[in-house]
Design a protein that fits this description.
This protein is an alpha+beta fold. 19% of the residues lie in helices and 44% in strands. The longest helix is centred in the N-terminal third of the chain and has 19 residues.
Length: 165
């Protein structure tokens, strides 16, 4: 029985890792502090790639930030904590986790505490380069409400992504 459980666990982790890893682009972002995700905002990131290592205990996120019309590539490594969330440093302290994954999209939640101590709750949706369907957008609105983020604070970012693919 124990071998079966270990096999099931390892298959689950491998499946989760396979779903997360690869080339992705940011489709939509939502935040309770809207200024952080407006164009050229510090948390308006344009994701390009996700990697997992060590049974996905480390997640690499490669992305661009567009400031003053210049795209700057950044890579962070999130380390999985005991609560299952990943922790990394970017524009302060971040605790993020994938909360929903399909072959087309991954939804992440993130809590950022910036250098001044200001806390921002965020949702990032990454996909394969297609805009959200009306049904997906509606689900995002419902999820944003559950997270305490006003629906008017959702930004579809594909049209503003001018950074290298």
């Amino acid at each position: 029985m124990v071998k079966f459980l270990l096999l099931a666990l390892s298959f689950g982790l491998a499946h989760a890792q396979a779903e997360l890893e690869g080339k992705w682009v940011t489709t939509a972002i939502a935040a309770d502090n809207i200024d952080t995700i407006e164009e050229e905002g510090p948390m308006r990131i344009y994701v390009r790639e996700l990697t997992c290592s060590e049974a996905c205990s480390k997640m690499g996120v490669t992305f661009y930030v567009n400031a003053n019309g210049q795209c700057s590539e950044t890579k962070v490594i999130g380390y999985r904590q005991e609560d299952g969330k990943y922790r990394t440093q970017f524009e302060g302290d971040n605790r993020f986790e994938p909360v929903h994954a399909t072959p087309e999209n991954i939804v992440f939640t993130n809590k950022n505490v910036d250098r001044t101590g200001r806390t921002t709750k965020l949702i990032f949706v990454v996909g394969k380069g297609q805009p959200l369907t009306p049904e997906q957008y509606e689900k995002l609105e419902e999820f944003a409400k559950e997270q305490g983020i006003p629906t008017e604070n959702i930004r579809e970012v594909l049209p503003t992504d001018t950074c290298p693919k």
